[in-house]
Structures are given as C-alpha cells and as structure tokens.
Amino acid sequence: MAEKRSTPKIEVRTATTKDVSAIIALSAKVFKDEAPYTRGMVMGQLSAFPEGQFVVVYEDEIVGYAATMVLPEAKVMKQHSWAEVTGGGYAAMHDRKGDWLYGIEVCVDPDRRRLRIGKRLYDARRRLCTDMDLKGIAFGGRLPGYKRHAKKYGTPEAYLEAVRKNEITDPVASFHLKAGFEPEFLLKNYYPIDTASGGHGVLMVWPNPYYDPEHAKQPVNRSNPDIVRIVTVQMQARKMAATKEFYDAVEYFVEVAAEYDADFVVFPELFTLMLLSAEPEELKPEAAIARLTEHTPEFVERMTAMAIRRNINIIGGSHATRTEDGEIQNVGYAFLRDGSVHAREKIHPTPNERQYWHIQGGDPIDVIETDCGPVGIMICYDSEFPEIARRLCDQGARILFVPFNTDTRHGYLRVRYCCQARAIENQCYVVTSGMTGNLANVDNLDIEYAQSGIFTPCDFPFARDGIAAETSENVEMVAVADLNLSTLAWARYEGSVRNFRDRRLDLYRTRWSDGG
C-alpha cells in the first residue's frame, strides 16, 4: 500500500522577505497600543541575521514571529534599553562574533494561543543557540503586572523577586520562568512606553548547557566572498532625432555591462531629458517636464524588457513621473532581472527643480530587495542628507546608488563629498552616475559636469582613497568594480573604526513619521 502523506498544518521555519507584510500585520494585531513594525525594521532584521528570524505558519497563515540577533556578552550583561541594543528594532547592532543569542521580539497571534506558538518559537531559538554553540539566550522581558501591584511591592525589584518566588503571577515573566529562563537583573527604562511595566524590563537568560568554551578559540572558517559587480555609466547628453535613438543608446551600455557579467548597471539622474531633444520645437520648462512624463509607460516597458533580456539589474537613473495624485516627481527606477520594477521618489527636490519644473518631493524611503541583497537609491540632492542613507543601511542596504545631474563643478563636488561621507558613516558602498555634455534645445539642461565613481569606506581592506573606480571628468564612459560584501561585514565588526555600530543610540536616533 502506498504511503500517504499530508501537508503539515503548523510549521516553524526561518522567515523570508515574502513574509514581511504578514509579519507587519501580525505585529499590528499584537501591539494594539503601539506602532507596529515597519517594513524597514523587518527587512533590517532579515538582512542582518537571516537565520535568526523565525515564523510559525498555521494553515498557511503566519501566527507567530520571533526576531533575534547575536551580541557580545559585554553588551548583554550591562544596563541597556531596547532601542539601544536592537538599533531601534532594525537589528543593526547584530555582531556575528558575539557569544549570546539576543531576543528582539516575540509576537504571537492572540487568536491562536492554544497552539503553543510561543513555546515553539523559544524552542527554535534554543536549537539555533546550540547549533551556533553560543553561551546562551538573553532578552529583556516585560513585567506587565508591575503597575497593578506597584503599591504593594513598592519597587520593580521587589515585584520581580515576588514573581521569582512564585508569590504572585506575572503574565509574561512567569511564562519565561516556566520556560526555563532565569532573571539576571532589572533593566531600568528598558522600554519607556511600556507603562504597564513601568518602562522597565528584566534580563532573562538561558545558559546553553552544551556550550563548549573551546569553540571561541577555534579558527573562523569564512565563506566565499560575496562579490557584486557594478558598472556605472557616465552618459553624454546628445540630440535625438527620434526616441528610438535614446533607447538604442541606453541598450548599448546595458549590453556592454551584461557582457562584463555585471550584476548592476547604473544610469544618471534625469537622463531621459534627452527624449525631449526629439521634440519639433523647444518647450518651456513646465511644459517640457509635463511632456516628459508622457514617456513613462514606454520607458518602463522598454527598460524592463532590457533587464530581462540581458539578465541584469538596471538602476534606471531617474525620470520625471506624474504620480496618482497628479504631482510630478523625480523618480528613480530599479528594473530587476526578474522582471520586477521598483520606483523610489526623490525626497528633496532642489530649489531649481521646484522653481522651473514644479517637481514635488516624495515620501517613502525603503530598500529594494534584489538577488544581491537589499540596495538603496538616493537621487542626487538626497545624498546630502545623512538621515536617508542611515535609514537605508539600517534596513539592510550595503550598496547605495546615487544617480546625479549637476551643472557645475561646485554642485558635483557637493554630491561627491557627501557620497564619500555616507560610505564612511554607514560602512557601505556608494555608486554614483552622472550626465555630461549639453542639450542646446532642452531648456534647463544647458551644461553638465560629472565624474562618476564607486566609493568605499576608508579602511585597510579597501582602496587607499576610498575609490573603487571612477571615470574621467566630462567624458562618456563606464567605470567597473567588484564589490565584496564580506569585506563590508569585516569592516563593521573588526575595522579600525566601526561607525555603523558605534552609534550612541542611548543619546540620539532619528525618528521617522512611519515609526521607523
């Protein structure tokens, strides 16, 4: 008789990027009095430590989520806040050389509590901890019964001791004690908005009984370097007799990059202005930019086809696009080789863009998930605002693309210096692509100055001047570089300086309107 098989109704597995929306929805359901996770936070957790994020799936629905990271003992075993130790929820402080598995959060669907979802998630953490031969598991646990009993016990320490002695039951701490965790010490002001706990938490620990102290003395076996090849195009503005000429010119560079086996090819900001040179007469700025938006459907269709046909990810510079609310925005497009299209609006239009073209600033600032990991796009002027790069890197981006269009050397140097600063601040790669030449019959595109480059952090593993590759000034050409993502990881954990991880999150952090 043939063996009968059925699909499991409940499953515990590592989370993937396809689960992000469901995880956010679950967090909104669980944290009714708080802001739910943002997409950026979950993406940051998945990017920092993909093997440490778990979901419980019941009948094809995500009903549980546990986020973790690895931290050194010195950071775990001292006073800290949730925002400080987790990098604001992004897992930005994850340290692959740490020795404790640290729990960021556990979410359990309140409608599915009889499925022992929490226990399944904690069991998954224990398995990971033992597999990685870490010292143990630690996290800041809540004390939601404290406020209700504060008058009787006075201090949170006294309340915690009463819970530990089983004199009183706490909805959360008692569960952790039964699950085998022991309270280490009180974390003061661990999560200030948790009023039920008085803002405090308790450091709960589970020592790994299988931990081998000799493990740390063993040599580290590194995986093969994760190389991403980049081609950045410094494109010269030229008059076109027909729009086909523009796409032929673009496809030439896409083909060149594909022949180099590049993963990404990058084009300049507003390079589609060349399409206006095919107009029968020169248009005034406002009419010209409105006319350019009419090219959007064809632009997206053609660039998508190129990405698929050449099997390459195209950062399609930027293009003036009329959005659903009728505004015209400067939008950066990523055309991925799987056929997906991602649009990212320029957040900060320059005074010139606002005055001549009435371009409005966008709102969302999120990474784009690619087959080479999360990447970010900052369009020209956006690179001069450090908060944007920091948010993108917190979300997991290790490569930032900056299409730019500057008319003078002054403007170009502002972009260049800021991009190099962003590479150092965030210990990431920054790729710039600019326009050169001029178009006499396109208003507000009189002269262009560019020297495109691929920039790195400044430390021993990288190029001496923090320049992986660059073009000559004001010449149409490409620059090519292989970027090693493993080297970035090394720099963040072992570099001469560790800007990305050494932030004083106990003193400052940027708070975004979406809660990120």
Automatic annotation (TrEMBL):
> One of this protein's Pfam families, by short name?
CN_hydrolase
InterPro entries for this protein: Acyl_CoA_acyltransferase, C-N_Hydrolase, C-N_Hydrolase_sf, GNAT_dom
Any GO MF annotation of the entry = acyltransferase activity, transferring groups other than amino-acyl groups
CDD domains under this entry? Answer: NAT_SF, nitrilase_Rim1_like
Give the CN hydrolase domain ranges. 228-485
Does Phosphoprotein appear among the keywords? no
**Domain (N-acetyltransferase) ranges:** 10-209
Sorted UniProt keywords: Transferase
The answer to keyword Ubl conjugation applying to this record is no
UniProt-recorded name of the protein: GNAT family N-acetyltransferase
